[in-house]
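Quick start: load a record and inspect it. Here is Macrophage migration inhibitory factor:
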Amino acid sequence: MPCLNISTNVSLDGVDTSAILSEATSSVAKIIGKPEAYVMIVLKGSVPIAFGGTEQPAAYGELVSIGGLGGDVNKKLSAAIASILETKLSVPKSRFFLKFYDTKANRIQEYAQCLHAIHQS
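Running the structure step on this input writes:
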């Protein structure tokens, strides 16, 4: 399940967050090639962020996915999310940073099995 966490120093009061969540979900699913039903987007506003020494509108994101990430895909994802943030929140593309985590499925399964074993004892 791809999960995109976005934090921004822009206030979300009065912002149509549903449109941001919908567009981000659609973009992530399409670019990674996973069903929208598996994509999670978390959006946090009014987070204290300084970028380049200023507190002008900025955003930071982390995208975690089990497979599907890589050079070209990451560039497309970064451009798509940056465009959404610029259009919807007036965050300049140059003030957005997106970090990618490509998790291997078997490591997640091992972790889940370990957690299940702990809860059973």
